[in-house]
# Entry
Amino acid sequence: MMFCFRKFHTLLGDLVRNAWAAFVRSRNTTALGSATDLEEFLFGIERASLLNLRPFLFDLQEGRCFYCGRRVARNTGHIDHFVPWSKYPVDLGHNFVLADSACNSAKAQHIAAAEHLSNWARRNTTHAEALEKEFNRRQLTFGDPGDHRGPAVRGNKG
Ligand SMILES: [Zn+2]
# Structure
Protein backbone atom coordinates (compact mmCIF):
# COMPACT_ATOMS: atom_id res chain seq x y z
CA MET A 1 0.00 0.00 0.00
CA MET A 2 2.77 2.44 0.84
CA PHE A 3 4.42 1.49 -2.40
CA CYS A 4 1.32 2.57 -4.26
CA PHE A 5 1.17 5.82 -2.37
CA ARG A 6 4.74 6.62 -3.32
CA LYS A 7 4.40 5.61 -6.91
CA PHE A 8 1.18 7.41 -7.62
CA HIS A 9 0.90 10.10 -5.04
CA THR A 10 1.34 12.99 -7.44
CA LEU A 11 -1.17 11.48 -9.81
CA LEU A 12 -3.82 10.67 -7.28
CA GLY A 13 -3.37 13.83 -5.28
CA ASP A 14 -6.36 14.99 -3.34
CA LEU A 15 -8.42 12.01 -4.41
CA VAL A 16 -6.21 9.67 -2.43
CA ARG A 17 -5.84 12.09 0.42
CA ASN A 18 -9.53 12.54 0.87
CA ALA A 19 -10.20 8.86 0.56
CA TRP A 20 -7.46 8.18 3.04
CA ALA A 21 -8.90 10.66 5.54
CA ALA A 22 -12.25 8.96 5.19
CA PHE A 23 -10.54 5.63 5.69
CA VAL A 24 -8.86 6.76 8.89
CA ARG A 25 -12.11 8.11 10.16
CA SER A 26 -14.00 4.96 9.28
CA ARG A 27 -11.44 2.80 11.07
CA ASN A 28 -12.01 4.79 14.19
CA THR A 29 -15.69 4.22 14.66
CA THR A 30 -15.08 2.32 17.88
CA ALA A 31 -13.32 5.27 19.45
CA LEU A 32 -15.65 7.79 17.93
CA GLY A 33 -18.88 6.05 18.73
CA SER A 34 -21.86 7.35 16.89
CA ALA A 35 -21.74 10.64 15.06
CA THR A 36 -23.78 12.29 17.76
CA ASP A 37 -20.97 11.72 20.23
CA LEU A 38 -18.59 13.80 18.16
CA GLU A 39 -19.43 16.92 20.10
CA GLU A 40 -17.86 15.48 23.16
CA PHE A 41 -14.64 14.81 21.32
CA LEU A 42 -14.74 18.14 19.58
CA PHE A 43 -15.02 20.21 22.69
CA GLY A 44 -13.81 17.82 25.33
CA ILE A 45 -10.21 18.97 25.27
CA GLU A 46 -8.87 22.43 25.80
CA ARG A 47 -6.56 23.51 23.00
CA ALA A 48 -4.08 24.69 25.57
CA SER A 49 -3.83 21.31 27.21
CA LEU A 50 -2.33 19.96 24.02
CA LEU A 51 0.76 21.98 24.79
CA ASN A 52 1.32 19.67 27.72
CA LEU A 53 2.19 17.06 25.15
CA ARG A 54 5.02 19.10 23.75
CA PRO A 55 7.87 17.92 25.99
CA PHE A 56 6.95 14.31 25.37
CA LEU A 57 6.71 14.69 21.60
CA PHE A 58 9.89 16.75 21.62
CA ASP A 59 11.78 13.90 23.24
CA LEU A 60 10.13 11.28 21.08
CA GLN A 61 11.14 13.12 17.92
CA GLU A 62 14.57 13.94 19.30
CA GLY A 63 13.88 17.62 19.08
CA ARG A 64 13.14 17.62 15.37
CA CYS A 65 10.19 18.67 13.25
CA PHE A 66 8.17 15.64 12.20
CA TYR A 67 7.98 16.82 8.60
CA CYS A 68 11.27 18.44 7.66
CA GLY A 69 13.52 17.07 10.40
CA ARG A 70 14.91 20.47 11.29
CA ARG A 71 15.64 21.23 14.90
CA VAL A 72 12.79 22.72 16.90
CA ALA A 73 13.35 24.77 20.03
CA ARG A 74 11.97 22.94 23.03
CA ASN A 75 9.40 25.62 23.81
CA THR A 76 8.37 26.69 20.32
CA GLY A 77 7.27 23.48 18.61
CA HIS A 78 3.69 23.28 17.40
CA ILE A 79 1.43 20.37 18.20
CA ASP A 80 0.13 19.45 14.78
CA HIS A 81 -2.86 17.30 13.90
CA PHE A 82 -1.33 14.93 11.36
CA VAL A 83 -4.73 14.49 9.79
CA PRO A 84 -6.13 18.03 9.85
CA TRP A 85 -8.69 18.90 12.43
CA SER A 86 -11.14 19.90 9.70
CA LYS A 87 -11.08 16.39 8.25
CA TYR A 88 -10.76 14.41 11.46
CA PRO A 89 -12.02 16.47 14.37
CA VAL A 90 -10.92 14.31 17.26
CA ASP A 91 -8.05 14.59 19.67
CA LEU A 92 -6.69 11.10 19.55
CA GLY A 93 -3.07 10.70 20.49
CA HIS A 94 -1.96 8.91 17.38
CA ASN A 95 -2.81 12.02 15.40
CA PHE A 96 -0.41 14.40 17.14
CA VAL A 97 3.06 15.23 15.94
CA LEU A 98 5.47 18.01 16.77
CA ALA A 99 6.20 20.42 13.92
CA ASP A 100 8.06 23.67 13.50
CA SER A 101 6.03 26.76 12.72
CA ALA A 102 6.96 26.77 9.03
CA CYS A 103 5.72 23.24 8.40
CA ASN A 104 2.73 23.67 10.65
CA SER A 105 1.46 26.72 8.81
CA ALA A 106 2.40 25.37 5.39
CA LYS A 107 0.36 22.27 6.03
CA ALA A 108 -2.60 24.06 7.62
CA GLN A 109 -5.78 22.30 6.55
CA HIS A 110 -4.10 19.93 4.12
CA ILE A 111 -3.37 16.30 4.58
CA ALA A 112 0.34 15.66 5.02
CA ALA A 113 2.23 14.52 1.97
CA ALA A 114 2.07 10.83 1.30
CA GLU A 115 5.75 10.42 2.10
CA HIS A 116 5.00 11.24 5.73
CA LEU A 117 2.36 8.56 6.06
CA SER A 118 4.77 5.71 6.49
CA ASN A 119 6.80 7.67 9.05
CA TRP A 120 3.67 8.42 10.96
CA ALA A 121 2.45 4.84 10.89
CA ARG A 122 5.88 3.61 11.93
CA ARG A 123 6.01 6.03 14.82
CA ASN A 124 2.65 4.89 16.10
CA THR A 125 3.70 1.27 15.87
CA THR A 126 7.22 1.59 17.23
CA HIS A 127 6.30 3.83 20.13
CA ALA A 128 2.81 2.56 20.77
CA GLU A 129 3.39 1.77 24.43
CA ALA A 130 5.16 5.00 25.30
CA LEU A 131 2.62 7.02 23.39
CA GLU A 132 -0.32 5.37 25.02
CA LYS A 133 1.19 5.77 28.46
CA GLU A 134 1.85 9.46 27.99
CA PHE A 135 -1.54 10.17 26.52
CA ASN A 136 -3.31 8.20 29.21
CA ARG A 137 -1.41 10.15 31.82
CA ARG A 138 -2.93 13.30 30.35
CA GLN A 139 -6.32 11.65 30.04
CA LEU A 140 -6.16 11.74 26.27
CA THR A 141 -7.03 8.76 24.16
CA PHE A 142 -4.23 7.43 22.02
CA GLY A 143 -6.40 5.63 19.49
CA ASP A 144 -8.93 2.92 19.07
CA PRO A 145 -9.02 1.28 22.52
CA GLY A 146 -9.08 -2.11 20.85
CA ASP A 147 -6.00 -1.42 18.79
CA HIS A 148 -3.14 0.41 20.43
CA ARG A 149 -1.36 0.98 17.18
CA GLY A 150 -4.03 3.36 16.02
CA PRO A 151 -6.42 2.87 13.15
CA ALA A 152 -4.23 4.04 10.30
CA VAL A 153 -1.72 1.30 10.89
CA ARG A 154 -4.11 -1.60 10.94
CA GLY A 155 -3.85 -3.65 7.76
CA ASN A 156 -1.55 -1.04 6.32
CA LYS A 157 1.93 -2.16 7.15
CA GLY A 158 3.43 -1.84 3.68
ZN1 LIG B 1 9.44 21.44 9.65
Observations:
- The chain has two domains: 2-43, 51-151.
- Residues 2-43 form one domain.
- Helices lie at 2-26, 29-32, 38-43, 54-60, 101-107, 114-126, 128-137.
- The radius of gyration is 15 Å.
